[in-house]
Structure formats: structure tokens, C-alpha cells
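not sure who needs this but someone in the group chat was asking about DOMON domain-containing protein from Romanomermis culicivorax so here u go. i didnt clean anything up, its just raw.
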Amino acid sequence: MYDFRGFVEIRDAYSTGYAEPTIDPQQDVQALGFNYTGAVVRAVFRRAVDTGDSKDVVLQDAGLSQCQYFVFPTSGGEIVPYTNQRFHLKQHDEKPVVKLVCDLRKCIAKC
């Protein structure tokens, strides 16, 4: 999710390391709504648990040996505009929060 001058956009992107995220040509995420509360932006979005996209991780409940890591950048990098409503995001400035998730039913309500 990107918030640039009041314009909010959710994009399906991926990263293979500390670098600018790459926009996935197969956009598998759908924005459902946004809410501003003070300086906090909350987004509601939907994505299939198995998109069939080789760049996406299949989301599934698993034993401890197969738990999935979710990465939540809390302070994104510099937002660089292309035009008034198109922009891209540089890599994050601060270390993101990483959560190990084994039971998606518990995470989806809290994450």
C-alpha cells in the first residue's frame, strides 16, 4: 500500500532483497476500501490464498516447519512521483516488522 499526497494505492509487488519493490505484472490484489484516522491509513484488501502466480506465496496453515514469514514495512522509503497520480516507492528506510505465521485464521483478524 502506498499513500502519496492523499492518493492511496495497493499494488501487488515483490522483492528479492533490500531494493525497490518490483511491480508484479500479474496483479492479484484487490482494494476494497481505505480509512484515514489521524495520521494512520488503514486499507482493506483481498487476495486469493493461491493465485497461481509464481511470484506469490501460497497462503496456508502449516506446521512449525512450514510457517510463513510476513513482512510489514512500518516506515516506507521515499515516494518518487512519475506524474501527479503515478509514483513508485524506494526501499524502506527502517527495518520492517517480521512475523512468523503458522495459523492464518489467527493472523488475518489481527495483522
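also The helical segments are 104-110. if thats useful
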